[in-house]
Amino acid sequence: MTRTRLVATLILSISFADAGPIEPKPSGMITLPVRRVEKNQPIARQLRHRAVGVSTALAPNSAEVFPESAPCCVFAHYILTNFSDEGDNQYLTTVQIGTPPRNFSIILDSGSSFFWVESAEECNVNSGGCVGKQRNPTFLSGPQSSSFVNTLRPWNEEYGSGSASGDIVTDKVVLGGIHINNLSFGLAHEISAEFLEPTLANGLMGLAKAGSSNGVATAVQTLKESRLISATITSYRLPRSLDHINNGEVTFGGLDHNKFDNSTLVTLNATNDDLWFVPLGQVSVNGATVSVSGSRKALMDTGTTFLLVPSTDIDALHANIPGAKKTGSGSYTIPCSTNASVAFEFAGKSFAINPEDLTNSRATGDCRSRIAVGSQANQWTLGDTFLKSVYFSTNADDNTISLARPV
């Protein structure tokens, strides 16, 4: 069943000046800074993962524009809606593809595994009309790249609400200044209307495990197989728009130990062959344990903006948040200035959400709670509402997830 939810996306912006080959660091890692940018673009409203959706639609936005000329080669887009509590909704990424290289804005997503970009040829939209060409002029095709090869092998990805399909191709890709020759990825000839919400993205790069990637190695796997990084690890330090500090980064190949409190680091075995699921321990609000139903598993997904919980648990969780009010649609509002501490236990250590992330607002009055109902029983999707409060790392070699408190 298709449900609506916000999509969060990370964007790496790599200038042509950075496009030459770069030797990997002695540590075997590639670390990219992330900065916050806000755009006057409506947010994407549809689920783009196999995960679950929130139960209420979100409104378009108006947003403050930050200068594109700000220093650093990798940035995050935060799109603010016309609600005061709707920041940190979108992170976009730019990689370079082809010969000569061209910039593509790509969703960087831990909740799926396949990498694809939109095609300049035979672009069809399931619900009619190739409006994507009007929205975004950056497409990939053979005539635009001398290193482009179409294998003519079909691929198809079905998301929670939406789909994309086309041919598997190979081409040169530059990621953080590192050249990947003959990377296999998807060229989308057909995309569903959900992907045509006005965004800055030209495609999607999945960073889950290879089991759900159409038989094609993920970009991070290819980096390791090419000995450009030492491990198939992706680590995230997500920035927070309210902080107005460009302190985010994405690291391929390891963990940046300068970004977290090493005494708080825990590593857990993932329980799914495809996506980043781990067992969820105790849930608490202000130190008091919340009684939740059934066994629980948590999906760590950078591509989900909200924290999504089973319908059987949403009331019990908000009942412990002072000032929480249920709306007619079944969602909740909570005081914008709440100081409630919502925490989750993993491997015996508790990780609390920054109270500001429960509303993403410093306004007065009531704001929409960024804890919402998901559509899967016993599954909690810990999106950016939670992940901004931790240092988050995935290891496809060991099938593990690491969490720590950021610094």
TrEMBL record:
- What is the annotated signal peptide range for this record? 1-19
Organism superkingdom = Eukaryota
Q: Which residues form the active site?
A: D109, D301
Disulfide bond as UniProt keyword: no
Q: Gene3D superfamilies from the xrefs?
A: Acid Proteases (2.40.70.10)
Task: Provide the GO MF annotations for this entry.
Answer: aspartic-type endopeptidase activity
Name the CDD domains for this protein.
Answer: pepsin_like
Q: Per the database record, which ranges form the Peptidase A1 domain?
A: 91-404
Q: In its keyword annotation, does this UniProt entry include Cell membrane? A: no
What biological-process terms (Gene Ontology) are attached? proteolysis
* Keywords from the UniProt entry: Aspartyl protease, Hydrolase, Protease, Signal
What SUPFAM superfamilies does the annotation carry? Acid proteases
Family recorded in the similarity comment: Belongs to the peptidase A1 family.
| Name of the protein | Aspartic peptidase domain-containing protein
Which source organism? Mycena maculata
Lineage at the top is: Eukaryota, Fungi, Dikarya, Basidiomycota, Agaricomycotina
